[in-house]
Task: structure prediction
Amino acid sequence: MLRLLIKIKKSLFLQKPNFMNRAIIWFFFTSLFTLQIILGQEKFTLHGTITETSSNETLIGVSVAIPELQAGVITNEYGFYSITLPKGLYELTVSYIGFKSITKRLDLTKDLTLNLQLEEEVEELEEIILVEDIERLNIRKPQMSINTLSSSSIKKIPAILGEADVLKSILLLPGVTSAGEGASGFNVRGGSVDQNLILLDEATIFNSSHLFGFFSVFNPDAIKDLKLYKGGIPAKYGGRISSVLDIYQKEGNSKKFKANGGIGIVSSRLLIEGPLKKDYGAFLLGGRSSYAHLFLPLFNNNNKAYFYDLNTKLNYKLDKNNSLYASGYFGRDVFSINNSFINIYGNSVLNLRWNHLYSNKLFSNLSLIYSDYFYGLELDFVGFEWNSGIQNFNLKYDFKHYISNKLKLNYGINNTYYRFNPGEIKPNRNDSGILPRKLIDKYANEFAAYVDAEHKVTKNLTIQYGLRFSNFIRLGQKELFLYENDQAVTFNEDFQIYESAKPIGIEKFKSKAQIASFNNLEPRLAISYTINDFNSIKGSYNHMVQYLHLLSNTSSPTPLDVWTPSGKYIKPQILDQYAVGYFKNFKNANYSLETEAFYKDVKNRIDYIDGANLIANDAIEQVILNGKMRAYGLEVMFKKNSGKFNGWLSYTLSKSEQQTLGRTNIESGINKGKWYNTNFDKTHDLSLNVSYELNNKWSFNSNLIFQTGQPTNYPSGKFGYQNLSIPIYNGRNQQRLSNYHRLDISASLTPRKNKKRKLQSQWVFGLYNIYNRKNAASISFRRNEDTSINEAIRTSIFGTVPSITYNFKF
Amino acid sequence: MKKYLYYLSFLILIYSCEDVIDVNTPTTEPKLVVDANFNVYNTETPIRVDAWLKLSLTTDYFDTTEKVINNAQVSITNLTDGTVYPFASNGNEGFYQSQNDDFVPKFNDIYQLNILYNNEVYSAETKLIPSVPIDKVTQGDGLLFGENDTEIIIEFTDNADRNDFYLFDLDFGEFLTTEDEFYQGKTFVFSYFYDDLKSGQEITVKINGLEEQFYNYMNLILEQSGERGGGPFESPPATIRGNIVNKTNNNNFALGYFSMSEAHTYTFSIN
Result:
């Protein structure tokens, strides 16, 4: 460890920081010095944890504000807050959407510990009071390009087949799309699916989708809170360049035993929670499973297609300064056809955390995380088994330092060790001709250290600035191919095509050897200037580096895509993103308007040569070229925050494209070296989400979605060859599918008799794609087998889908 | 093999529905298409050679008329021994046949195809690629995708001394490519599933040996012709360039491929 630190120190100095980096470092240090001067007056620190009354569940993002000082703080991911104020008599307001606010008189004459409990707002409409302080703080906070959704708002959104879904909900936010129905993952601001850092209780999730994207891997019952960072990403996060989706699971009820669940037409779920030791520890155990023949209604009973997942969490409060957490996730998708085709894949995560309070101003969290993704396939009719995957071990230590009410520092270190299994093939029975074969495992280590400051410079100006240092070492593997001039792809001038180069040798490595090493400084900056209590402008810049790449050349990623680390032949992706925004609250913060414009530029975006085969390929470098990518756009989000009738309208106008030039003048590059639309480029993306609470029995919700069609290709001609009709294509992603649109509605019925009994129930009725729009998931071109005439075939996935779900809790 | 992994997992998406729609496709200038794959059946006596090739032009995608070329000058030269084999058009269908009965490609010799069309010279080189015989074809009773499946079990023994790339022609316009990376030198058995076969129906399965480059070419051809499904997991299509070079004007390239492969067949009738 020590050696590693020294090495990092060295490389920090070896690396020449560019002008931007230098400016930021300078800025950072000068601000720290000014801060020392401010700290003159007699001050005291107020700190504590905010929890929910009935369950002791900690609450994230609760505003603790002193309106008369215009000072405030928000609880962190563990419900902790700390604020340092001058001696005095204050009125403290603690508020959180959906909860009753607390106002407390406070005579601050010494350091204080104040643990508070908030009570959930009873669902009586007259009582919904909108808390101004939260919105005011939003306006002042430098964070931009961030969307937050709570578990309850996710559950309100009508979803396909009646299943509330985390990923489907974030698709309604501006700047977030997916390639289409049945596409795994999501795309943020024109970035690819693998550029999203998805964290579940701080552990990386590599594949966020079940059943090819129809469901996400997150059980909405087990989730407390999620935050999506699209830009201005704090220095705490790194390793992915497009976005961070930070999801926290519930901790469990440490007061009493509770259960809730739901029975739907495709899946059922159950979650139980209760105290391990009253008020000190709790457990949570959640499970969800779809029914076995979900997607194979036409077949006989030898076929299966289902998914399941398990969420667990334990927490224990050792004393007032120490808490322990353990959380786990295990999910699998299972497909089986007549036992001759068996496919199983999914994520597992195990995570141990220790929260320790060094002082009333210094909060720390130490995490030890294991996470893996497994993909397994058995094809009996060919006689083999196949598996691939990625494993990682992550140790991180994060600190939150509440230095003053003007300055909060976040700093920490993070180390991840990766093992990549690109694939292993084995005979599945004795008479199989398949030879066992293991593709060469790859190993890497990623280290990062960061400092990030949230600095209130003046009453109206808040700046968040930070710096992350990242170091990535591609560790030794058994064998690595060598190529002439280090070029693993060659260009065939006669046929104008890229071809795999023939290796000229093999280099063998010891496991401690370094094949390649990269060091990067990643400055981050976000500025917020408040014009008045209702208007603010914000700007942000972030420079980020991604060392892992998901190998995928299909129009949307598939579960069997494998991850590969940067190394000798594949360079890390480097992003620069700039964003500016204008934020406005009006009508007493009943309405809010968020507008943002962004531009981003990615270097070393990998691209694939025509016909690249990415599966079971031991020399992936032979089909990859380094290209670039850029995206820009405008996002608008208009929200009505309160009242019987509320919801939001989000609209994004954007462009996402990539380019891979020839390395020399002779080479054509990909798509003749011209910019072309990425698979997930959507010019217009509009969604309208409206909910209406009729009375305390019935409430209604609807989604209206409109999107430009996904880029695709139409043939410009055809030729006959070996009695086949082959379409001819020019370039990549030159055409588009027709526009995508649909309307969904749902109605929830909460029976009146609920009030008097322990068992609380709710019915949710839904209609997805109500006007039965046949949205194209793809258009393919082929010859009709019977008529021998060429046809364009539109594949559409969901027509109108009705659903009904019964939810309960007791 | 790799492609098995690849496309089978996507046939799961059964919930979807397909319909034929009208689409306006772009147009491009016609280009020469060379369909010149010579099968050599070395194990038959006398040695049989499918000694023909076909020339045509590309058309718009939805064009229903075929544009064949009957007025090109075609020959194949054995560059190793210098023999020239002239080919002549045998009618109006675009086919050209060898004028010599002794056109029997030999292993290790290099052959050059020359075409003069529209005052431009097109050329390509290839050599004969060996294959292995099919040991056995039997009928199984397994089902994969539906009740109407007929399982055919194909068995062949790979040659351990070289890296092989094979193309199976499974009749009815169905093809399969496979390479021996994972069964080098072994007897390899795999099943193929046909839809709607009748009892008594005869099937001829053919195995061809391919050069690696031609193997990659055939993979692209099969992928783009719709043989491998499609749907939301298509890989980006490409202009599939073969090994034909326009010596007169490099930009006006031709499509298609010139190849020679040893072939073996196995004929089988359905119970």
